[in-house]
């Protein structure tokens, strides 16, 4: 079900609401492309009303010159560095919503996997199963290009465990850490997730978002 009221489209998605905001040209931040440094990025924004976070904004950046593309999620309000931890011991928890910004690091300790943000870090709103599928795709590539037989065997073992987890037959832990406090794990029953504020020391050890993303966040908050 959706309703249209230009210049904003509102989509109802379960307990959340997404508003696609078409920004007028004079309100679009004039940010130069970080890849080619030639053109001004085209910017589109989508606002999500999500329990716990209140409202999150997703920005999509596209360069008309070189095709550079980046999306990111952040809050219109200042948030504290946070860690979310959930033990996935029920197949139904695979449907748990996950918000990941480009400044977030997530860990799957049972698989020995840590995913840190980099220059092309993905931001997304998905679920735990979606994270497993993303990780599985990367591990498949790494396994095919393994330099040694032992690395290949280790990759195959991780892939077997990931497949079991996707099928709901493997208990594992997901940890999400974000120095910007924008990412999180959001089950219907929030008592299933442990939420901790990161100390300044812990937050400083995490990799953050690319510099141009930090600039965009500041420009948005100042508008």
Describe this structure in words.
With 223 residues, the protein is of the alpha+beta class. Helices cover 23% and strands 35% of the residues. The protein has helices spanning 128-144, 149-166, 200-204, 211-222, and strands at 2-5, 8-13, 16-21, 42-50, 54-62, 69-75, 82-88, 97-100, 105-108, 113-115, 124-127, 172-178, 184-186, 193-197. The strands form three sheets. It has a six-stranded antiparallel β-sheet with strand order 1-2-3-4-5-6, with no helix packed on it. A five-stranded antiparallel β-sheet has the order 10-9-12-7-14, with no helix packed on it. Helix 1 (128-144) packs antiparallel against helix 2. The two termini are 31 Å apart.
Attribute tags:
alpha+beta; Jelly Rolls; 4 helices; globular; disordered N terminus
Topology:
Blueprint: E1 2-5, E2 8-13, E3 16-21, E4 42-50, E5 54-62, E6 69-75, E7 82-88, E8 97-100, E9 105-108, E10 113-115, E11 124-127, H1 128-144, H2 149-166, E12 172-178, E13 184-186, E14 193-197, H3 200-204, H4 211-222
Antiparallel strand pairs: 1-2, 2-3, 3-4, 4-5, 5-6, 7-12, 7-14, 8-11, 8-13, 9-10, 9-12
